[in-house]
Structures are given as C-alpha cells and as structure tokens.
C-alpha cells in the first residue's frame, strides 16, 4: 500500500444496521446491464452488491490503493464465483479504467481521503459515458459518534465546487439520511 497513511477499519455488521448498500445502489439508479465503477472500494461493501444488481449483462470495476483490502475483495469475488467484476490495487489519482465506459461512477465516503481530489474527479469524468452519473456519497460535516472527525469531512459546498471544477454538472445535492449526503453529477 503506497502513499496511504492508515487502513480503513470498521465493523461491517454494525455498518449494515445503518447503511443498506442494496438500497443505496438502487436509489442512485443502478440497474441490470449497467457498468459501475467503485473508486476507493475497500473490501467491497458496495462492490459486491453492485455485481448482483448489474448482473451478467453488466460489469463492475473496483479499485483501492490498499492492497490488503483488494486482496480481501478478490477473495470474496472468488468465493462467490462472481464473474462480472474486476478489482485492482491502484491509486485513483494516477489510474483510470477505460475511457467512457461507466454508467455510474461511485465515490463512497472517500472524496475527502484523496490527496488530490480534483485529479480523481477529472479521472472519474474521463471514465464516465457521455450520459453517465457521478455519485458522491459522503459524511455530513457535523459532529457524530461515528465516522471521521468533522474537520476532515468535506461540506457539500466544497464537494460541489470540486466536482464542478472537474467539469461535471451537479444535478442534485441532498441529505441521504442522518449521516450522509448524496451528490449526483452528470458529464
Ligand atoms: C472510508 S474508505 C471507504 C471505502 C468504501 N467506499 C466503502 O464505503 O466501504 C476509503 C477508501 O479509499 C481508499 N483510498 C484512499 N486514497 C486512495 C487513493 N488515492 N486511491 C485509491 N483508493 C484510495 C482507502 O484505502 C479506503 O479503502
């Protein structure tokens, strides 16, 4: 794992009590046959459910800078005999999957983690289809008993400005629930 200061650790069962990845993915419009890119996927909390939603006619690409997380995701992919997913260790600031392939490019509580979020967003734009959607699901910038400290979280305004600077058009900004906001942007 290069360039990365700490490993993301959490209790998946606890998380599932407050966050249903299937519901979130369906709410953002993920459907059978789509191509979904999960940037900063970690062990695949969203990646694995996405493979089930897009099905055999769709495809999921996942990347994370943390090689241990990608190894665990790859084990899950093998164990579940998933055939429509490519997971790889890479730095999202430097690496892109193919240009113009994604219906949905997903950033799940990760934008504030990048050293250069603008570069990641520009890469995201290049991977989206012309009518593709960028989803930025992130922590609301306020005190909570869970999640990263508020000072490192991005406000919706900060995220919006970065997304627009990368050349994407923000379509909606909403509080998804009591913890997270959801920004949708199109190419
Ligand atoms: C807070 S976790 C979120 C993981 C996942 N999206 C989820 O919701 O379960 C942030 C992830 O981003 C990854 N990450 C941080 N910087 C990265 C970079 N430059 N390129 C790729 N992944 C990165 C971390 O290793 C970590 O797995």
Structure keywords:
187 residues, alpha/beta, 6 helices, 30% helix, disordered N terminus, binds S-adenosylmethionine
Overview of the structural elements:
30% of the residues lie in helices and 26% in strands. It is of the alpha/beta class and 187 residues long. The radius of gyration is 15 Å and the shape is globular. It has a 7-stranded mixed beta sheet with strand order 3-2-1-4-5-7-6, sandwiched between helices. It has a single domain (14-186), classed as Rossmann fold (3-Layer(aba) Sandwich). It has 6 helices and 7 strands. The protein starts with 11 loop residues before the first helix and ends with a strand. It binds S-adenosylmethionine. S-adenosylmethionine is lined by residues 4, 8, 40-42, 45-46, 63-66, 69, 91-93, 108-110, 113-114.
Proportion of helical residues:
25-40%
> Order of strands across the biggest sheet?
3-2-1-4-5-7-6
Q: What does the radius of gyration come to?
A: 15 Å
Structural class: alpha/beta
What is the fold's blueprint, element by element?
Blueprint: H1 12-18, H2 21-27, E1 35-39, H3 47-54, E2 59-64, H4 67-79, E3 85-89, E4 102-108, H5 117-127, E5 128-139, H6 156-165, E6 169-175, E7 180-186
Parallel strand pairs: 1-2, 1-4, 2-3, 4-5
Antiparallel strand pairs: 5-7, 6-7
Bound molecules: S-adenosylmethionine.
S-adenosylmethionine binds at residues 4, 8, 40-42, 45-46, 63-66, 69, 91-93, 108-110, 113-114.
